[in-house]
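INFO  loader      accepted 1 record
INFO  loader      residues=324
INFO  predictor   begin
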Amino acid sequence: MPVQVCVNLERPAVLPRIAERAAAPIAGLGASDATFLDVAFGRATRPRAAALRPAATDGGGAGVASDVPDGTRDPAFPWEPDPGEIPATRSGETARMAAMTASYDIPVVIDRREGPYGEVVLRRHGALLQIIANGCFLMDTSDGRSERLLVDAACDALDGRPEPSVLIGGLGVGFSLAHAAADPRWGRITVVERERAIIDWHRDGPLAGLSARALADPRTDIVEADLVEYVNEISDTFDALCLDIDNGPGWTVTEGNAGLYGTSGLAGCARTLKPGGVLAVWSAQPSPEFEGSLRNAGFQRIRTEEIPVARGVPDVVHLAVRPG
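INFO  predictor   done
INFO  writer      dumping tokens
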């Protein structure tokens, strides 16, 4: 019996081996189930191929940029349909998706840097600014709801503590910093960012418009350092620790970050917090395993707040309190 495999590309995926065993692999970026079924059963013709084509061999992507169209040699899926094909579907979603891909704005690289942790790229995609690290999409300027919740939930959990201090792990596009600086409840605001390029983009680059006011706030201090090392080395303590350096405890940007979410890393976070201090961790998906790790590390009042997204699993903020 022929098998069709539908892959929702919410994260990087290796497709060639799947394709070898499937009669028809179909991949989408946030398409609905109805759209997948329309394509699979022939109710709609196939939409345009993705702008990024994975390599068919391990060496196919060597020596080329990870974030530009046609950036691989020996592509696994080089096919592209006739631009004149217009899908037809009951709901019209497939037609809209095809129209979007037909007029797809190719991301423009603004800056590309090589650092101690690999490649970091700032690019513009239409009206959005995006940060890519080692070919992995980190964040963009489209929606800062979850980053703002990260800061607000931590502050609210402090139960009115006067002028609490906060350590924000990861500058990113600046949503968390800007939101913290706009809140008069916070006292000292320290941001730890390991990528010099990201700091530069905020101080005098394309991201300055998002963070200039926050950077000028006398409460703000930017520290260029690796967060994992920082929390294990400093003697200073904070009322809240807000972490947003990865796509979640189970989906880290670099292997070294994984230790932050384990026994020793959480012990370092606890040492960085004052008694009764709050740990808040952003994640692209819920992690019951991480909640268990927090309990094993001695944290209390553990809970998870969800931020609904248009498609896929919700973003979440894991919250926990150091006893004392």
